[in-house]
Amino acid sequence: MRVVVVGAGIVGAACARELARAGLAVTVLDRGGPAAATTAHGEGNILVSDKGPGPELELAKLSRRLWPEILDGLPHREAVEWDAKGGIVVATTEDGARALAEFAVGQRTAGVTAREMDAGSLAAAEPHLTRDVAAAVHYPDDAQVQPSGAATALLADALRHGAELRTGCELLGARAAGGR
Known PANTHER family for this protein (predicted)? Predict the structure, then answer.
């Protein structure tokens, strides 16, 4: 089977890699260069701290679980910046503190680790943060990947598995021949 992947950003590169590793004939098309458009401007955040229970949170949890496995499967894994550093969300008002506490409870029921922090643990973790904080929650599962580096590594692995890359070509549409 032949497959055309449109775009050599992080999503296209990940798709191309999986398809090529599965033995399909893959051609990746991009009007610019690999990881040169949206991916180049992305933050690479893999966050559970900003999502309430539901499909988006489940996708974030899956993504957070899969990224280390994906990276470990890359031949040059050390070239991809990955930081499973966690995150801290703070509220500076009492109303904000109540909302944050309620949000964290909902996340915990959905399987997210969300730990309330006292002033001492917050100051130890973030010594330069204002002390005018009404509440803080630590999310150890928040992480970040450098998107351009990850996309480039994924694409390189796709090419290593037989995918072809064509840059400088813009897809304007598709033509069907023989019902395909």
Answer: FAD-DEPENDENT OXIDOREDUCTASE DOMAIN-CONTAINING PROTEIN 1 (PTHR13847:SF287), SARCOSINE DEHYDROGENASE-RELATED (PTHR13847)
- The torsion angles phi and psi of 24, rounded to 5 degrees, stand at -85, 155
pTM of the entire structure? 0.86
> Do 154 and 14 touch, CB atoms closer than 8 A?
yes
Give dist(CA 23, CA 18) in Å, integer: 9
Tell me the pLDDT tens digit for each residue of 132-147. 999 999 999 999 999 9
**What is the number of other CB atoms lying within 10 angstroms of the CB of residue 158?**
26
CA nearest neighbour of 148 among 6, 18, 42 = 42
Q: What domains are defined for the chain?
A: 1-43+147-180 (3.50.50.60), 45-145 (no CATH)
Helices (H), 36-83: 38-41, 55-72
The DSSP secondary structure of 82-137, one letter per residue, reads: EE---EEEEE-SHHHHHHHHHHHHHHHHTT---EE--HHHHHHH-TTS-S--SEEE
The residue type at 149: G
